[in-house]
Amino acid sequence: MAKVPAVKLNDGNKIPQLGLGVWQVPDEQASSSVKEALAAGYRSVDTAAIYGNEAGVGTGLRAAGVARKDLFVTTKLWNDRHGYDDAHKAMDESLEKLGLAYVDLYLIHWPVAGSAKFLDAWRAMVEMKEDGRARSIGVSNFTQANLERLMEASKVVPAVNQIELHPGFAQRELRAFHAKHGIATESWSPLAQGNITKEKVILDLAKKYGKSPAQVTLRWHLQSDLIVIPKSVTPARIRENIDVFDFELSVDDMAAIDGIKESPRLGPDPAQFGK
């Protein structure tokens, strides 16, 4: 069974560097996917209120029989719950669906373009960290401008910013800002929704290392000091995605992947989304 390294966050907590994402996984499928992942060695699961599968994730966590202290569970606050009171209620709803007393990481899912209400949500989340409902708190899809605004209003710096990130859309400027302020970068859509398998560089390296294009890409994330949460509901693919700790890309191979032509983002633009 693979042993996943941990990344130390700015609040002293640790997050597994590779976890299971469950975006677009139906609630009834989430349980089996989570159970399969935990059997394969995963200990981190990333869900969100808007995914509609927190209950299924919770069922899978309980069915796997892994001690709670060994799990790292992330969920997220949706855009319509950014008010201070709403954020507190949303957290309690998520905990009830998950069947947990606390989550390891709670994220603001999107900043919501044109709104500053995320500041009210953050104030509530700081209290959630203080009362133990969230061990760590962070954000998702925040731009540098969003982060600067949040840090001007609060002494608590987000532990994580989860953003779209993959070869060809490497978000280097935002990552540099994160590094400067001690914010861990977590990649969503790390395989570019499968588009990465079309890249000749990735295909050539997959042949060189005897690995799949997905495994080579995930290795690039890991060696780039990124946290990564590939999504799959296929048992074989779930196991494949964590089988990435028995090889290492060379400096030249990393540079070759870094040199993949820049491509447009696949998901919404945070500067526009949620208006």
UniProtKB/TrEMBL annotation:
Q: Determine the domain of life of the protein's source.
A: Bacteria
InterPro entries recorded for this chain? AKR, Aldo/ket_reductase_CS, NAD(P)_OxRdtase_dom_sf, NADP_OxRdtase_dom
Domain NADP-dependent oxidoreductase intervals: 18-261
Pfam families associated with the record: Aldo_ket_red
Asked if the Swiss-Prot or TrEMBL record annotates the protein with the keyword S-adenosyl-L-methionine, the reply is no
Q: Where is the active site?
A: 51 (proton donor)
- EC code: 1.1.1.274
Q: Which UniProt keywords apply?
A: NADP, Oxidoreductase
Keyword NADP: yes or no?
yes
Similarity comment text for this entry: Belongs to the aldo/keto reductase family.
Query: Can you say what this protein is called?
Result: 2,5-diketo-D-gluconic acid reductase A
Q: Give the organism the record lists.
A: Achromobacter pestifer
Name the encoding gene, please. Answer: dkgA
